[in-house]
Amino acid sequence: MWKILSFLQKNLVWTIPVMMILGIITGYFFDMSFIKVTIVPLTFLMVYPMMVNLQIEKVLSLEGMKCQVVTQIINFGVIPFIAFGLGNYFFPDSPMIILGLLFTALLPTSGMTISWTGFAKGNVNAAIKMTVVGLVIGSLATPFYAKWLMGEVIEMPMQKIFTSIAVIVFLPMLFGYITKVLIIKYFGKEKYQNGIKQKFPVFSTLGVLGIVYVAMSLKARGIINNPMMLIDYLIPLVLLYFINFTISTVVGKLFFNRGDGIAIVYGTVMRNLSIALAIAMTAFTERGSEIAIIIAMAYIIQVQSAAWYVKFTDKIFGQL
Question: What CA–CA distances, in Å, run from 11 to 142, 297, 301?
């Protein structure tokens, strides 16, 4: 069982498309509306495990403030507006797709921000802080950005969005912190760091794959009737990630040392697509699966691009 879960986590670039295809097939041939009841439990399964390892105490540190401030300026002052512009250019008559692209850009950093920064031999401590700060700011700012940029064309269920974020982000964050304290109390910090800690992220993967499957199955007939929509979604997503990587790389290389520069790249490019998916599916109910398709496809590009960037890091920033 553990090997299967680890395999699924390490191969998201393949397992997510497989779940998308399975969702489309079953949703086309069967009425899958009954699986809507799984959205909330799958969401909790997706978010809670990643919160256990979140190092909330890092927010209180004032170390590396320049790096942190620049990262959040890119995250909230630049990338959301690029996503909004791309969405309006490619999907002028599809406001829900624009909103999906905006959600993809509004929730920066995930646990993989730290992992990829480590793989590329960047400043892991800076990445940890970016992950916590980006998650908190993104969770609080997303409803206001959505209302500001899309409120004229989509009726924003602000109360539902805030409720969803409270249930999806802050409640699991509290439970995760309590879980971590209890584990360290009863098993010791060393055992937590060297064994237990590594077991939580794989359970998030089950939630991610489950939500992707639900979103695809609920939207299956629309996709089958218009299969080119998936290709149409890929083009702006590729452009968004390419522009994001370019901006972050230039800023990181010109103004920061190697370690901080790499952290800035992964602290701005990696998105918390799990939480974006969860908000879409819980706050927008019937129309949530429409938003979720483009978010789900972003996983494929994000994982692939992050992996390839590691291979070129030494050429871009120089070797250690």
Answer: 29, 15, 13
